[in-house]
Automatic annotation (TrEMBL):
Range of the intact protein held here: 340 to 629 of 686
Coiled-coil regions listed: none
Organism, as annotated: Salinicoccus roseus
Compartments in which it is found: Cell membrane
Name of the protein: P-type Cu(+) transporter
Family of this protein: Belongs to the cation transport ATPase (P-type) (TC 3.A.3) family. Type IB subfamily.
């Protein structure tokens, strides 16, 4: 009877927006007691808009944006899209750029007119002893805004705050996970204050912030060592090792191909709520087999 049950469950899964890539992990899904979520693009829409700016040195807002957008134009990160869209809404011209380099989980850099131009995370700026106005930064972060900095020849030139939208479906998913006694954990490369702000609105139980891409898989392992059976949900290149490491790796369909290739299950409609169907269908399918 097993093959029949499985083919029925494949059809049911598809109806619930799920693509099952690995059967043994799908079977394991009925034992999950913690779900780890990447923030950007998974719990949030991953569509950033520029909300606030501050400029330093001699650059004005447009100069900061055109420099930042020039280097971000070669990046696929949602932050990059937000900055490039703002520059194009202001009809700004981009510069010539060379030596583009992406530093995963930190930012990007390139050369414009012989100057070294970076758009980087607050963590990078703090580590390199570049001073900025903590009050403004803290206020933006508390509002849940992601802040990146334009650094030209090691000098701070601008701060750009961007806001993303929380998925309503993320809140509903977490509430339902709690009803089923499943823990909801956030794992993000973004700043701690932003992460806490988003987590609080969604009802997340635990937050790991400012986690570099190569540390995400280790964090998953740490959580497993507590005796939890863990599903990891993510969309980015930086989530791929963590998806592989988790007992069940779940990729968001709208995310990168690398994330999908590393996942056991794909959320075809990019709706976090479909995670709930994974648990129920796994139970229904495999409890029938034993
Ligand atoms: P997440 O876990 O939320 O998907 P990432 O690991 O992709 O986050 O990025 C972590 C942080 O690194 C971002 O919040 C940002 O500060 C910085 N960053 C990453 N990519 C870029 C980029 N293209 N431009 C500017 N900053 C970036
Ligand atoms: Mg992400």
């Amino acid at each position: 009877a097993a093959p029949l049950v499985i083919s029925v469950s494949t059809a049911l899964s598809a109806k619930h927006g799920l693509l099952i890539r690995n059967r043994p992990q799908f079977e394991q899904a009925r034992n999950i007691n913690a779900v780890i979520f990447d923030k950007t693009g998974t719990l949030t829409e991953g569509a950033f808009g520029v909300t606030d700016m501050e400029t330093f040195s001699s650059m004005d807002e447009d100069a900061v944006l055109s420099y930042a957008a020039t280097v971000e134009n070669d990046s696929e990160h949602p932050i990059a899209t937000g900055i490039v869209d703002e520059a194009s809404a202001r009809n700004l011209e981009l510069h010539e750029m060379s030596d583009f380099n992406s530093i995963t989980g930190v930012g990007i850099e390139g050369k414009i007119e012989g100057r070294n131009v970076k758009v980087v995370s607050p963590g990078y700026v703090a580590e390199h002893d570049i001073n900025f106005d903590d009050a403004r930064f803290n206020e933006w972060s508390r509002q849940g805004k992601t802040v990146v900095f334009l650094v030209v020849d090691e000098e701070l030139s601008g701060a750009i705050a961007l806001a993303d939208k929380i998925k309503e479906s993320a809140k509903e998913t977490v509430a339902e996970l709690h009803k089923r006694n499943i823990k909801a954990i956030m794992l993000t490369g973004d700043n701690r204050k932003v992460a806490d702000h988003v987590a609080e609105q969604i009802g997340i139980d635990e937050v790991y912030a400012e986690v570099l891409p190569d540390q995400k898989a280790d964090k998953v392992a740490e959580i497993q060592e507590r005796g939890l059976v863990v599903a990891m949900t993510g969309d980015g290149i930086n989530d791929a090792p963590a998806l592989t490491r988790a007992d069940v790796g779940i990729a968001v369909g709208a995310g990168t191909d690398i994330a999908m290739d590393s996942a056991d299950i794909v959320l075809v409609d990019s709706n976090p709520k479909d995670i709930l169907a994974i648990f129920s269908l796994s139970k229904k399918t495999y409890n029938k087999l034993v």
